[in-house]
Specification:
191 residues; alpha/beta; Rossmann fold; 6-stranded mixed sheet
Length: 191
């Protein structure tokens, strides 16, 4: 068995959709059904590191049906609590939440909702409140655009391991293999 990274409470999955305009990363698409606020924070930190492995600076948006405190629903409260935990961890990347998906992708809209958002430009790491939202978002975007889906990529393991979904194509296998090789090289450099 491959152990988790030290200090990591559980595994998560991140999927990417590579578009002509840039890449979008989504989590958790395949592992954690209904993450807690603590898991949202941990997942975001792990996903940000994974995004950096693609030589992309992460800009994370914690997504919800609510934007910046508009709802008291359990899901919105969970995402706000996850955001508060991230602020305590003080990661060195841009993030904000909770917010609607359109606010995550449009700085102009986000600024109308909250003028002092630390997130600039368009988010590229979309952290969803549950596995349903994340998985559905990736599959809809992949099916409705000219894009290259990538993943799922497992987050939180001490060594590289990738999983394949039944719908994976030959190109998807090649792409995930390249991700695994890159991850293995990174792990061997730090060992």
């Amino acid at each position: 068995l491959i152990p988790r990274m030290p200090g990591v409470s559980r595994l998560y999955a991140m999927s990417a959709v590579i578009l002509r305009t840039g890449s979008l990363f989504f989590c958790d698409t395949h592992v954690t059904v209904d993450p807690t606020a603590e898991q949202i924070a941990e997942m975001t930190l792990l996903a940000a590191e994974a995004v950096r492995a693609f030589a992309i600076e992460p800009k994370a948006a914690l997504l919800s049906h609510s934007s910046f405190g508009a709802s008291r629903s359990p899901s919105a409260q969970k995402m706000r609590a996850g955001h508060a935990l991230l602020k305590e961890a003080a990661p060195e990347f841009e993030f904000d939440g909770e917010m609607h998906g359109d606010a995550a992708l449009s700085e102009a809209l986000r600024r109308r909702l909250v003028a002092d958002s630390p997130l600039t430009g368009s988010a590229n790491l979309l952290v969803m409140p549950n596995i349903d939202a994340a998985n559905i978002a990736v599959s809809l975007l992949s099916a409705s655009t000219e894009s290259l889906p990538l993943g799922p990529m497992l987050l939180g393991l001490a060594k590289p391991l990738q999983m394949m979904v039944p719908s994976v194509t030959a190109r998807g296998i090649v792409n995930l293999s390249a991700v695994a090789v890159g991850h293995a090289a990174t792990v061997s450099e730090t060992a």
